[in-house]
Amino acid sequence: MRIQLAQRSEADELLGRSPLALLVGMLLDQQIPMEWAFTGPYTISQRLGHDLTAAEIASYDPDAFAALLAEKPAVHRYPKSMAARVQQLAAYLVENYDGRPELIWAEAQDGHELLKRLMALPGYGKQKAQIFLALLGKQLGVQPSGWREAAGLYGEEGSHRSVADVVDADSLARVREAKQEAKRAAKAR
After folding, report:
1. What is the rounded distance in angstroms from the CA atom of residue 154 to the CA atom of residue 131?
2. CATH of the domain spanning 1-100
Protein backbone atom coordinates (compact mmCIF):
# COMPACT_ATOMS: atom_id res chain seq x y z
CA MET A 1 0.00 0.00 0.00
CA ARG A 2 1.21 3.48 -0.84
CA ILE A 3 1.01 6.30 1.71
CA GLN A 4 -1.29 9.11 0.53
CA LEU A 5 -1.52 11.44 3.52
CA ALA A 6 -0.06 14.57 1.93
CA GLN A 7 -2.06 14.01 -1.27
CA ARG A 8 1.12 15.05 -3.19
CA SER A 9 3.06 12.22 -4.81
CA GLU A 10 6.58 13.44 -3.96
CA ALA A 11 5.67 14.17 -0.32
CA ASP A 12 3.81 10.85 0.04
CA GLU A 13 6.75 8.98 -1.48
CA LEU A 14 9.02 10.43 1.22
CA LEU A 15 6.54 9.45 3.93
CA GLY A 16 6.45 5.91 2.58
CA ARG A 17 10.20 5.42 2.66
CA SER A 18 11.24 7.51 5.67
CA PRO A 19 10.02 6.53 9.14
CA LEU A 20 11.37 9.85 10.45
CA ALA A 21 9.35 11.82 7.89
CA LEU A 22 6.22 9.90 8.88
CA LEU A 23 6.80 10.60 12.60
CA VAL A 24 7.46 14.29 11.91
CA GLY A 25 4.32 14.54 9.75
CA MET A 26 2.27 13.05 12.56
CA LEU A 27 3.85 15.46 15.02
CA LEU A 28 2.95 18.41 12.78
CA ASP A 29 -0.64 17.17 12.40
CA GLN A 30 -2.36 19.58 14.75
CA GLN A 31 -4.19 22.84 14.14
CA ILE A 32 -3.56 22.65 10.39
CA PRO A 33 -5.05 20.53 7.59
CA MET A 34 -3.68 16.99 7.47
CA GLU A 35 -2.25 17.42 3.97
CA TRP A 36 -0.28 20.49 5.05
CA ALA A 37 1.10 18.62 8.09
CA PHE A 38 2.20 15.57 6.13
CA THR A 39 3.74 17.71 3.38
CA GLY A 40 5.89 19.35 6.08
CA PRO A 41 8.64 16.70 6.14
CA TYR A 42 9.01 16.96 2.36
CA THR A 43 9.22 20.74 2.56
CA ILE A 44 11.89 20.52 5.26
CA SER A 45 13.89 17.95 3.27
CA GLN A 46 13.69 20.14 0.15
CA ARG A 47 15.01 23.12 2.11
CA LEU A 48 17.83 21.02 3.58
CA GLY A 49 18.63 19.56 0.16
CA HIS A 50 18.35 15.92 1.23
CA ASP A 51 16.29 13.44 3.26
CA LEU A 52 15.79 14.10 6.95
CA THR A 53 18.03 12.56 9.57
CA ALA A 54 17.37 12.71 13.28
CA ALA A 55 21.01 13.53 14.06
CA GLU A 56 21.09 16.55 11.74
CA ILE A 57 17.76 17.94 12.96
CA ALA A 58 18.70 17.43 16.62
CA SER A 59 22.02 19.26 16.19
CA TYR A 60 20.70 22.07 13.95
CA ASP A 61 20.92 25.57 15.39
CA PRO A 62 17.43 26.14 16.90
CA ASP A 63 17.03 29.67 15.51
CA ALA A 64 18.16 28.59 12.06
CA PHE A 65 15.83 25.56 12.14
CA ALA A 66 12.90 27.77 13.18
CA ALA A 67 13.74 30.13 10.31
CA LEU A 68 13.87 27.16 7.93
CA LEU A 69 10.34 26.12 8.95
CA ALA A 70 9.10 29.72 8.79
CA GLU A 71 10.22 30.31 5.18
CA LYS A 72 7.26 30.89 2.87
CA PRO A 73 5.28 28.79 2.59
CA ALA A 74 5.65 28.01 6.27
CA VAL A 75 5.76 24.35 7.30
CA HIS A 76 3.18 25.00 10.05
CA ARG A 77 1.06 27.87 11.22
CA TYR A 78 3.28 27.97 14.35
CA PRO A 79 6.70 27.38 12.78
CA LYS A 80 8.85 28.42 15.76
CA SER A 81 7.13 26.23 18.34
CA MET A 82 6.82 23.32 15.92
CA ALA A 83 10.49 23.61 14.98
CA ALA A 84 11.35 23.19 18.66
CA ARG A 85 9.06 20.15 18.90
CA VAL A 86 10.57 18.56 15.80
CA GLN A 87 14.05 19.08 17.25
CA GLN A 88 12.97 17.59 20.60
CA LEU A 89 11.60 14.55 18.78
CA ALA A 90 14.81 14.18 16.78
CA ALA A 91 16.98 14.49 19.90
CA TYR A 92 14.89 11.84 21.66
CA LEU A 93 15.30 9.50 18.69
CA VAL A 94 19.07 10.03 18.65
CA GLU A 95 19.34 9.44 22.39
CA ASN A 96 17.01 6.45 22.64
CA TYR A 97 17.00 4.78 19.21
CA ASP A 98 20.37 5.72 17.67
CA GLY A 99 18.46 8.11 15.37
CA ARG A 100 16.55 5.19 13.82
CA PRO A 101 12.82 5.68 14.45
CA GLU A 102 11.91 2.32 12.89
CA LEU A 103 13.45 0.68 15.98
CA ILE A 104 10.49 2.04 17.98
CA TRP A 105 8.23 -0.53 16.35
CA ALA A 106 10.76 -3.14 15.21
CA GLU A 107 11.79 -3.85 18.80
CA ALA A 108 8.34 -3.60 20.45
CA GLN A 109 7.15 -6.92 21.89
CA ASP A 110 3.44 -6.19 21.50
CA GLY A 111 0.90 -3.47 20.82
CA HIS A 112 0.87 -2.27 24.43
CA GLU A 113 4.65 -1.81 24.46
CA LEU A 114 4.55 -0.06 21.08
CA LEU A 115 1.89 2.34 22.34
CA LYS A 116 4.00 3.04 25.43
CA ARG A 117 7.06 3.75 23.24
CA LEU A 118 5.07 6.10 21.01
CA MET A 119 3.57 7.92 24.01
CA ALA A 120 7.11 8.54 25.28
CA LEU A 121 7.95 10.54 22.15
CA PRO A 122 8.04 14.33 22.67
CA GLY A 123 4.83 15.84 21.28
CA TYR A 124 2.97 12.52 21.26
CA GLY A 125 0.13 12.17 23.74
CA LYS A 126 -2.06 9.09 24.01
CA GLN A 127 -4.40 10.01 21.15
CA LYS A 128 -1.60 10.88 18.70
CA ALA A 129 0.26 7.70 19.70
CA GLN A 130 -2.86 5.58 19.16
CA ILE A 131 -3.47 7.15 15.75
CA PHE A 132 0.15 6.56 14.72
CA LEU A 133 -0.03 2.97 15.98
CA ALA A 134 -3.18 2.46 13.88
CA LEU A 135 -1.40 4.01 10.88
CA LEU A 136 1.51 1.60 11.31
CA GLY A 137 -0.83 -1.38 11.57
CA LYS A 138 -3.30 -0.48 8.85
CA GLN A 139 -0.97 0.95 6.23
CA LEU A 140 2.55 -0.34 6.90
CA GLY A 141 1.83 -3.85 8.15
CA VAL A 142 3.40 -3.25 11.58
CA GLN A 143 1.07 -5.50 13.55
CA PRO A 144 2.51 -6.80 16.81
CA SER A 145 0.07 -8.82 18.89
CA GLY A 146 -2.61 -6.63 20.45
CA TRP A 147 -1.96 -3.65 18.17
CA ARG A 148 -5.64 -3.04 17.39
CA GLU A 149 -6.57 -3.04 21.07
CA ALA A 150 -3.68 -0.70 21.92
CA ALA A 151 -4.76 1.66 19.11
CA GLY A 152 -8.26 1.84 20.62
CA LEU A 153 -11.05 3.04 18.34
CA TYR A 154 -8.42 4.08 15.75
CA GLY A 155 -7.48 0.43 15.26
CA GLU A 156 -10.97 -0.69 14.30
CA GLU A 157 -11.12 -2.27 10.87
CA GLY A 158 -13.21 -0.32 8.39
CA SER A 159 -13.31 2.84 10.50
CA HIS A 160 -12.75 6.34 9.13
CA ARG A 161 -11.64 8.23 12.23
CA SER A 162 -8.12 9.46 11.52
CA VAL A 163 -5.13 9.71 9.21
CA ALA A 164 -4.66 5.98 9.79
CA ASP A 165 -7.68 5.44 7.53
CA VAL A 166 -6.69 7.79 4.69
CA VAL A 167 -5.63 5.83 1.63
CA ASP A 168 -7.07 8.02 -1.15
CA ALA A 169 -9.18 11.13 -1.74
CA ASP A 170 -12.43 9.28 -0.99
CA SER A 171 -11.26 7.98 2.38
CA LEU A 172 -9.93 11.47 3.21
CA ALA A 173 -13.41 12.87 2.60
CA ARG A 174 -14.93 10.13 4.79
CA VAL A 175 -12.49 10.88 7.64
CA ARG A 176 -13.28 14.59 7.41
CA GLU A 177 -17.01 13.82 7.46
CA ALA A 178 -16.61 11.60 10.54
CA LYS A 179 -14.64 14.31 12.33
CA GLN A 180 -17.31 16.92 11.55
CA GLU A 181 -20.00 14.56 12.83
CA ALA A 182 -18.03 14.02 16.06
CA LYS A 183 -17.73 17.81 16.51
CA ARG A 184 -21.47 18.26 15.98
CA ALA A 185 -22.22 15.50 18.47
CA ALA A 186 -19.89 17.08 21.05
CA LYS A 187 -21.58 20.47 20.62
CA ALA A 188 -25.01 18.91 21.05
CA ARG A 189 -24.12 17.56 24.50
Report:
1. 6
2. 1.10.340
